[in-house]
Amino acid sequence: MSLLVETIYIKAQKIRNLSFHQARFRKSRKALFDVKADILLKEVLAPTLPKDDVMYKCRVLYDEKIREITYKPYFYPVINSLAIMTADDIEYPYKWVERPELDEVFRQKGNADEIIIIRKGWVTDAYYYNLVFEKNGEFFTPHIPLLKVHNGLLLSGRKK
Asked: In the CATH scheme, what is the code of domain 4-73?
């Protein structure tokens, strides 16, 4: 079985969307491993946070317990092209390191830099990113994302 992963944005020792990551971390460990003892990500990450103001991508790999924490400087990628990919049968209820169903869809993108996944007629996610849209100054996320715990909670006051 693959490890699970939380990918967390960190800058200037601030952990972005910590409550959402904590909720998914807790829910996944409980559902998959029946773990009752909580691990607080804030407490685990605090001693290891980079001390500078650089943006970091923190990866927490885990199953019943945390197996690895890594930090890499994060740079926004340039995305010049998107492929719209339909994947009606894809299921992604937990954020696994290995995700063969998503990988297979991504391999079919041709020369596009990134994909937007359509599942049963609904825009869900990109391969690497959560999607956020803007219409008339209002921001919203997909109504039915593949990975429900985090993506659906990205924006407070989200419009449906």
From this structure: 3.30.470.10
